[in-house]
Amino acid sequence: MFVTHLECPKCNRTYESEAAVQLCDCGSPLLVRYDLDKVKRAVTKADLIPRNADLWRYRELLPVRNRDNIVCLGEGMTPLLHLNQLGRKVHMPNLYMKDEGIIPTGTFKARGAAVGVSRAKELGIKVLAMPTNGNAGAAWAAYCAPAGIEAVIVMPKDAPPIPRGECAIAGASLYLVDGLISDAGKIVASAVAEHGWFDASTLKEPYRIEGKKTMGLEIAEQFGWRLPDVILYPTGGGVGIIGIYKALQELEAMGWIEGKLPRLVAVQSTGCAPIVSAWEKKESESAFWEGANTLAFGITVPKALGDFLVLDAIYQTDGCAVAVSDDDILRAEELLAACEGTFVCPEGAATLSAAMELARTGWIRPEEKVVLLNTGTGLKYPETVRVAPPVLEPGDTLPKS
Amino acid sequence: MFVTHLECPKCNRTYESEAAVQLCDCGSPLLVRYDLDKVKRAVTKADLIPRNADLWRYRELLPVRNRDNIVCLGEGMTPLLHLNQLGRKVHMPNLYMKDEGIIPTGTFKARGAAVGVSRAKELGIKVLAMPTNGNAGAAWAAYCAPAGIEAVIVMPKDAPPIPRGECAIAGASLYLVDGLISDAGKIVASAVAEHGWFDASTLKEPYRIEGKKTMGLEIAEQFGWRLPDVILYPTGGGVGIIGIYKALQELEAMGWIEGKLPRLVAVQSTGCAPIVSAWEKKESESAFWEGANTLAFGITVPKALGDFLVLDAIYQTDGCAVAVSDDDILRAEELLAACEGTFVCPEGAATLSAAMELARTGWIRPEEKVVLLNTGTGLKYPETVRVAPPVLEPGDTLPKS
Fold first, then answer.
1. CA neighbor of A191 nearest in space, from A102, A106, A130
2. pLDDT at A401 over 80
3. Which of A68, A314, B86, B224 could bond to A319 as cystine, CB 3.0-4.6 Å?
4. Is residue B30 included in any domain, yes or no?
5. What is the tens place of the pLDDT at every residue in B229-248?
6. Is A182 within the bounds of a domain?
7. Does the entry feature the keyword Cell inner membrane, yes or no (chains A, B) (predicted)?
8. Do strands B150-156 and B173-177 pair parallel, antiparallel, or not at all (unpaired)?
9. CATH number (domain holding residue B307)
10. Minimal Cα–Cα distance from B9 to chain A, Å?
11. Would an 8 Å CB–CB cutoff place A394 in contact with chain B?
12. How many of the other CB atoms lie within 10 Å of CB of B145?
């Protein structure tokens, strides 16, 4: 393993990485640091080619010491689709989608869970707890099962229902709360303090980011190490955008990529847009968003612990932040299915809506290479499609289409 | 392209492959034949290594002439998981699962659809129609969208609901029927005759098998071209088992694999077991199963057009056919989730149930390498998990676990 230590991006304090550390004493999330020169000597781009098509192909840049601790359900190396039909239609011929619906548990949360749980197992964690809008809880519950770790999951009662079943069948201890993810977070924090559990809340342990950063590594490899111009990411807790930015910085430090980094775009819903609001005011942190409400439930995060890291990633890459309406999200979901056959989650659809808006304003130029990050499959959101097909009797006939 | 012709496995009549042919004049499904010597000279096992992790890596063994006709959503090279925990528990240490839940549309039907639709596009088809228990319809609807082909889909009204939304959002013409898939099939057959549509019903066109056979190609490659001893497959229409057997025969003819082929096991539900019944009587065809009823809806096929090919694959490989109960299926689904973190569909769970039964009787020996074919994700069957978690108020506390 090439991890050297944990580092606070706010106060620069460092921590030893072999203990089960949570936040920095200053309250900031911690980042995992590697000896990148040593990684560079240990592995080449060509070494990756024959490796399995999962995220562990980047094991030198991941924080697990002993391979026996890896819990792998086949996560990673999700398809990077060139959206030919849709791209022509919306005048972005170089429009791509990274489809994180094609992954265990159906969402990109599997990446954070695979790496986070594997590392938790390695560190000897027996019980972990987390608040969730559904999909992260489902993913951590799934990976905890083979790891022999008990997962305690608390999610809003109004969250989409399918992840409840996923948590339950994987054997997690599941609770609902009549409130938002921030309410679930407070319940988890007090239980963690009382019972001594490991807190697996977003960014309260350092390893989930490492899993999410593999999206950035894959985008780089799948484009032949020549980066796209823009990456749009639906932003709730923001771990993905933080992770992608971290991945690109590591690849840059290793000399595996060069030139300007892609402009990173945080996409939110107009019903919960704390990052957009902060970005518009050029602030370095966000304010708690009151009355959060959007059908893109996965990005209903009123105040993210890592907001300052998200905003930094945007500022450093000349990116931006955009909010889109629920109506536009549903239209984008339909457009993707009708043109490309991909059934995406509302959060993923939001990135298309934002890209179309940015193309209209000229912020995205027509020839630019643009990547939408679809964070999950629409199969987990069947309620977003309304359908009432005609019911026939045996022997009936069909009209000519 | 290396296709030479289409061939009837029943009467051996051959057909030219560049026309849109359906069944043989004798009523049998047709199989695609290749110049395997030429394939062998054109590609080596090593050539595959740097190719994309999708089923088109085997393009020399697939029936699409012009790459521009390929509709790819990233399907194929699904994970082959070693079920360590579960294998120890059920005394099959070499138990594996090929997880076809990690694929576009969430089921293995994506393979048949990707190849079938790509070829239909190449042959100039404008409208196709099919009966379905849900997942095949959803997959064909999805692939037809970017191909510019209109899909007319008829499914039983009692089929699980999620695929309805998938069909609708992809723009298919969707109908329900108050009956079984066999009733839907009759409606489609009469519409095809009346309107001149292409009939994409199971095995009524030759290319779906070619998509499904890639499961066999992948199993061979993922095991390093050394085959497992047993493959268990949940059998409705049986295209997958026919396809896997065809793949293994082609690889054998090319000299890419040697030794005894895996014993192929057709797994059905006790509520609909025509293949099991025929196999028990050593018959070469099955009889229509009256009153079919099982929660494993995808394998509710009272009489499969390719039954004789399924039975042949079983007999030729010294395989067998096993029926399992709905209760055992639900128990197996829970066992897989609790031990391995994988949330599988009931059809996939049935294969675990069957493997455990065959291990109990000694038909599977403890040291044998056994592959369960999970045909889809449990996310499409949320109703199979019952869950009623406690609901907390903000500020509540959690009990110690």
1. A130
2. no
3. A314
4. no
5. 999 999 999 999 999 999 99
6. no
7. no
8. parallel
9. 3.40.50.1100
10. 31
11. yes
12. 27
